[in-house]
Batch of 2 targets.
Target 1
Amino acid sequence: MIYSLNGTVIHTEPNAVVIECGGVGYKCLTTMNTLQKLPKTGEKAMVYTHMIVREDSVELCGFADTSELNCFRLLTTISGVGAKVAIAILSVLTPEQIALAVSTGDSKTLTKASGVGNKLAQRIVLEMKDKVKKMVPSGTIELPKGNTVIPSAQGNIEKAIGALAVLGYSPDEVTPFMGGIDPTLPVEKIIGETLKAIGKR
């Protein structure tokens, strides 16, 4: 299992990048969002990878950050969603936007991706919600540092935690970083602030 690649970008093309490590060029399928974050050809870059092994092929998929990697892995567990469809979704939507769409039941947003029709988008939302429910406990979520979750804000906090679960973060991992965040903020803002806090650890 190749966890990551750290080397020189020697070639890019739509939905693919080649990174040379130790004299070997590794071609990775990737998203347009990751391609936009990567440095120019000839410069150093690091991507997190996911290896797909089939009977007739071995493919690497590369991502600029772990949020995108985790979202890709979860998407490909959905029936009817292969690597190409997952990459297409992550090329037009960020992991945060996907997480928010799933947590709010907004399947229409997912149809922006090439190859994703209404039925598939609805299936993605339903199946990902089921997976997230197993990760997010029901009941009141208590935040550290003395924050009290008032009833009107409770829904936003729970939605944010559910959305972050889509990105592979468990409630136990994210709640310590929510202590200084205003629970009355919109869900998308809570998600963004939490990810910023996690990134600074």
Note: Residues 151-199 form one domain.
Target 2
Amino acid sequence: MSAAAGADAEGAGREEPTRLPETVRLPETVRLPEAVRLRVVAVTADRLGELPVEQTPPSLRRIARFAPAKRARLGAVAIASALESDPDFRERVADSLRAALPELTAALESGSPLPALPIEEAAAAAYLLDSPGWRGLVEDAEAAAVEAASAATRSASTAVIARLREQLDALRAERRTEAERLRAEVTASRAEIAGLRRRLGDARERARGAEAEAVRLGVEAEADRTASAAAVLAADTEARRLRAKLGEAESSLESARRAAREGRGAADVRLRMLLDTVVDAATGLRRELALPPATERPADAVVAEMLAVSAGNAVPAARGLEEDDPAIVEQLLALPRVHVIVDGYNVTKTGYGGLPLEDQRNRLVSSLAGIAARTGAEVTVVFDGTDVQGVRVQTPRGVRMVFSLHGEIADDRIRLLVAAEPAGRPVVVVSSDREVAEAIRRSGARSVSSAALLRILGRN
């Protein structure tokens, strides 16, 4: 065998051709073992590149331009069909194989011993050359394949048995460990039971002592009950005496009150008559003007106008006088029908500006709800509305939450709310903004700092 032919045969032995579909039949309609069928296609693919184009079947001419491994992988079906349907092509493949592997060809055709090579390679060459005894080689290849599969199965079974033995040993070791752990737990449980028994005996001793103490205390309690009954009888006697004195004192008090009522001067009578006259006049005026109950407030009208007011149409107004003393703030909150207007972010950023804006709003509104419930004041808190446009915000009872319009700041909205109030109604504005305080100073409203309100919220 030449060096080139030997290299060709060695390369053919190393490549792993594509597995043929079971439906493809090779010449002679013989059922070849899988390894032999793969070698037949691989050898044909190797020889295909050596044939002239005019001697190559049309269906294989494009495949012949591929590399040998690619021919076997992509043209397996076409190669098998050509071997079956084109005897001339099969003969040309056999001639090419005789020229490439002369020693193997001579040995196959003469029946002499074959060179050292895999049995499936020799069977494939004998099948393509149609040499004498090729069926025996095919059977030998099939037997070798079966033996190899059996050996692989035995090897796998041996590995499985070894793995199962290892698992069994591990389970035995685990069982021993678990048994030792259980023994230790039993020992510890016995020791714990012994300790519990000792404590139970001690508890029984203490129970017997407690029973004796209970008997002694029962005797003492009976004596105390007898003494208590005597003390109750004495207390009842003393209570009757005190009730008699109380009756005398009440009679004296009633006489004093009667004398005081009779001794009231004419000034008190005139003042009472004046108040009655003012109340009657107010009632008559309301009836005359047919005024309905005050269900709406000026601040509600300002909020209603916000959707119709364009950005930047601020109404100049406001009144104020700064007050930082929390005691004065409490007095202002106690005024009847007072309206408290809070610059929201001015207060929250003074007290807890590190929180997110939504958390700042929720915390302030919740705190103001407590003040509204405690004092009955009307509370309106104003926030810049640039970050909450289009968001519906729920507020607790007693607190009105207002957001400035697009292009408007909270200070402008506060001025509008103050300007909407009638003259004479107490209005308190909570803000540390000097411009806001100075702008409302002349209106008669009161201004307090954010720090003063925060101190009140902190106490609440």
Note: Strands lie at 322-323, 339-343, 378-383, 399-403, 427-430, 446-448.
